[in-house]
Amino acid sequence: MDQPAQRTDEVPLPRAGQVLMRTLPAALTLVIGIPGLALWGLDENGDARADWFLLLPGLLVPAALLLHRLTKAPRPALSPDTELAPLKWDLAIAAESGRLPPRSPAQAAAALACWQVEKTVLVGAAAVGATITWTTRAVWLWLVLAALCAAATVVAGRQARHGWAYLHATHSTGRPTPSGAVSAISAANQQTTAVPVPTAGQVLVRTLPEAAVMVIGLPLVVRFVLDENGETRTPWWPVPLLALAGLVMLVDRYAQAPRPRYDQRVGEAQWKPAFAAAAKTGVLPEYPEVRVAVGVVACQNIEGVVTGVAMVVAVALSALAAPGFPWLGALGALVILTVINAVRAPRAWAYLRALHTIEPTGCGPAAPHPWVAWSHEQAPALPDQGRGRLGRPAATRRRQPPAAPGSPAAGTPPSTPATVSRHRGPTRAPRPRRCRGAR
Questions:
Q1: Of the four, 34, 129, 291, 304, which is 20 to 30 A from 321 by CA?
Q2: Phi, psi of 381 (to 5 degrees)
Q3: Could you count the other beta carbons within 10 Å of the beta carbon of residue 143?
Q4: What is the DSSP letter of 3?
Q5: Domain that holds residue 20
Q6: Is the pTM here over 0.90, yes or no?
Q7: Whether residue 260 is found in the same domain as residue 321
Q8: 420-421/425-426 β-pairing
Q9: pLDDT tens-place string over residues 239-290
Q10: 308 assigned to some structural domain
Q11: Residue at which a domain ends, from 336, 358, 380
Q12: 224-237: buried (b, 16+ CB within 10 Å) or exposed (e) per residue?
């Protein structure tokens, strides 16, 4: 065992409370430092009292991160090459079942859980500091910053809940027990395989309501908050923009085509080569989990193209409503992203078409193993002699004498040699056994 791996195994896993307490110094630095700098360097109108004041917030965040690095709870190191999707799946299982999943890399998963808890605390501290600054210096920029930090805290908090449960399960159970994770794994598998993958046409049609809201809503909001010169008409301009974003997310949630849940156990190293191979050869992936994961990614690619085109049209109409605003940068970035998604769209469309051409549901069983397929091809066809009391052909109720090894009727591949014993030479076929009552 090399020295880094030995050092990783020797570091104990911290408790959730230890991670939280060790993050408080850096969080208090952000909560106190952001309002303190604003009160000292900004006047009542929100203008900087000195030109070099803008350098101080840029130094406050690195100082808080450095303090956090010095005071954080010791934990195993997380390698940069570690794939995070399986680790997040393990954290979700621990949050649902209350126990560690079987065969879970406890060291790497615990390091990720610690980082999720710390990230939530630090971003939440930045949101509190920006809110206090907005109450003391009534500048709308601080309100927008506080709203963005609060939204990021909510998103990170959902992941931190999984990390907290994983750390709690690590110290409450002596070792991983598979009993608690069976229900979570079964529920996830059922949710993955019960819902079929939608067709490409269904994905396209279900994305049109969201695109219509973007194309109609953004020019109306721009017309309301900006004049022809690009100046804001009202200080409440962030409110309609946030309302439009919420409406788009709501429409996307309820109008999106139903699809299976993306299996977090399938990483990019599995579905990316399968996607590329399916696009070139037209052969679907062998395993159902990978097949469904590629189908979900294909749906996202098609939705990205439709959404990108809608955003380009919406920004172009907004530029006509407020010509004085610099729309060129946003329009260029949207065009580049839309072109990138459009290049991937034909491959996604072809995959969904092949998926529903071969399997109507998109979630059928995997292709049989080559040995199983060969055995079915080589099996001799039985004549139609009617069915007996057991519901199978009458000829099959009597045992037939086995054929010699290596013959075509024996059911073994022609390339398989006969079994040779070390002392007795070639093995002989056993004598046929006569059934009772047979004449």
A1: 304
A2: -80, 135
A3: 18
A4: H
A5: 3-191
A6: no
A7: yes
A8: antiparallel
A9: 888 888 889 988 888 888 887 776 666 666 677 777 887 777 777 877 777 8
A10: yes
A11: 358
A12: ebbeeeeeeeeeeb
